[in-house]
Amino acid sequence: MRAIEILGLEKTYSVGFWRKRPKRALHPLHLNVEEGEIFGFLGPNGAGKTTTLKMLMGLVFPSGGSARILGMDVNDPRVKAQVGFLPEQPYFYDYLTARELLEYYGQLSGMPANGLGAKIEAMLARVGLPDAANTQLRKFSKGMLQRVGIAQAILHEPKVVFLDEPMSGLDPMGRREVRDLIEQLKKEGKTVFFSTHILSDAEALCDRVAVINLGQLRGIGVVADLTSKMHAKVELIWQGTSMPPAIAALGADWHTSGDTVRAILGDDKQDAALEILRRERLRLVSLIPVRATLEDYFLEKLESTEAPVEVTA
Amino acid sequence: MNSRIRHIASNTFREAVRDRVLYNLVAFALLLVGAAILVGQISIDIEHLVVINLGLTAVSLFGMVIAIFVGIGLVSKEIEKKTLYTVLSRPVRRWEFIVGKFFGLAGTLVVNTFFMAIGVFAALLYVSHHLHAPDAWVLIAVYFIVLQFLMITALALLFSSFSSPLLSAVFAFSLFVIGTFAEDLRGFAALTSGMARWVATGLAYLIPNFSALNIIGSVAHGQPVPGHLILYNSIYALFYAAMALSGAVLIFEHRNLK
Predict the structure, then answer these.
(1) Quick check: is A39 in a domain?
(2) What are the chain B neighbours of A60 within 8 Å (beta carbons)?
């Protein structure tokens, strides 16, 4: 069974005070996420990531299309018991302690009172807040709030976890811990759908990613497949203090450092560049194929003018 | 009451308590007792009447201010601070959230009123040295004040479900003031004719009739409260609050939480 099925979900808002005009936040989006997958939803700010997540959570009503989670309509109350959600930049009831907050959310999720206390203790330890159980949230740092936010999203052991920018506000150690936690969720068989613009996290964690920009799906697939489809590049390093104009004309990105020059150019230009180096009697230090990263793919998709990706069921 | 509504209500109550709203009533009760001593010294023979009038009016006004200013933020603050997102992403229906919030604030006001009523009776005891049988009617006046709180809380929630806190406060406070003169508006409607009569009568029945629920003057004079008035006022206030709450639910059910 698919964990998430997005079937042409779209959203248009009315903007303006007197003369309302439509503003499309999300073009019809088709997307499927399999059970047990870690799925990255990537895009710059304002791309439509949060709008999509809010529609999946029933916070915003779609202008068209529908979505299913675990085979049920997103508005089916039974779905909510199987879903955990961490909003972007979460803010919680700051008059509550961490324990009280988790207790409240546990109760709302229908968790039995018996054993809830022990589960809360274990969860606080799991997100690295074992000593903050009785501290009011108004005294929490941004990173601690993010951790408690993750705790409330997974406390009731949901099958599908939605995380909106989960690494936001965390220091490198915290980010590492959240990454480990997401991997742990996958090992437990849960599906994780997370939005981010921190591409290194997505590259390290995700089974598949989707890139969205200006409300349109620009690409989707397994990270390795997506990056392998990109135009291959090579890195050339040689001894010298200046860039021969003939190599610059091949479209290379380059910079000099001391008595070496480093240039990156398409692998189809590799032979021509080597020939120029030989002719100019410059000593080659290294030639290394450059692996395309998710960041390269992401940037290419953002700058791309090609038609949006169509994904059908 | 289902468990989710109960949990939302108790969290709303806890928020009010930790917001130090309830602490104000302790100060209020002390002030009231202090004022009673002063009144006892300057008003001969009518100190009993003045304490009931002063005390119950203060209970009513103080509670109205809490109902309006806490009530208008119940929904809008949750949206503004995004705390609502993590609540509604759980198996909580939107109507349950609104009803839970209503009961939470209503509970806060009932507890507030209970303590303030103790303050009023303490002041009465101080000036009269003992309570009389007609003083029991003060309890009915307090009950009517609570009914008014239920109506204004539901109205504040209704406004809070679609407008900003500032506008909600203006709407709710205006309705409170107009509702205090509801009987006058009904009297005015009876004097008009034609289209104006229809409009005035419609308005008179649409606005909350707080004047019918205000029996402070009569209980201060020791007049008994007829049983049918208690019944009609209870039905009216609960029906009005239920309608306002239904309106709030209806609006909130279709609201996009951007």
Answers:
(1) yes
(2) 256-258
A145 domain-assigned:
yes
Domain that holds residue A238: 233-291
* CATH assignment of the domain containing A66: 3.40.50.300
Q: How many domains, chain A? A: 2
Residue A249: count other Cβ atoms within 10 Å of its Cβ: 11
Same domain, yes or no, for A74 and A95?
yes
Pairwise CB contact (< 8 Å): A80 & B89? yes
- Closest-CA distance, B258 to chain A, in angstroms, reads 7
Are B86 and A95 a contacting pair at CB < 8 A? no
- The residue of A12, A59, A76, A150 whose CB has the most chain B CBs within 10 angstroms, and thus the best one to mutate to test that interface, is A59
Instruction: Tell me the HSE value of B25 on the side-chain side, using a 13 A CA sphere.
Output: 25
CB contact under 8 A, A83 and B89: yes
Q: Smallest CA–CA separation between A50 and chain B, in Å?
A: 9
- Do strands A38-42 and A208-213 pair parallel, antiparallel, or not at all (unpaired)? parallel
Same domain, A146 and A124: yes
Residue A131 CB burial class (10 angstroms; 0-12, 13-18, ≥19) = exposed
Using CB atoms, pick whichever of A54, A105, A162 lies closest to residue B257: A54
What residue segments make up the domains of chain B, in order of their start?
A: 3-253
Q: 3-class SS at A263?
A: strand
Whether residue A177 is found in the same domain as residue A44: yes
* Residue A221, strand partner residues: A209
| pLDDT digit string (tens) for chain A, length 313 residues | 799 999 999 999 888 777 778 888 899 999 999 999 999 999 888 889 999 999 999 999 999 999 999 999 998 888 999 999 999 888 889 999 999 999 999 999 999 999 999 999 999 999 989 899 999 999 998 888 989 999 999 999 999 999 998 988 788 888 888 898 899 999 999 999 999 888 888 888 999 999 998 888 888 988 877 777 776 788 899 998 888 888 888 888 888 888 899 998 888 888 998 999 999 888 999 998 887 777 777 777 777 766 666 655 4
Place of tokens 């709303």: B12
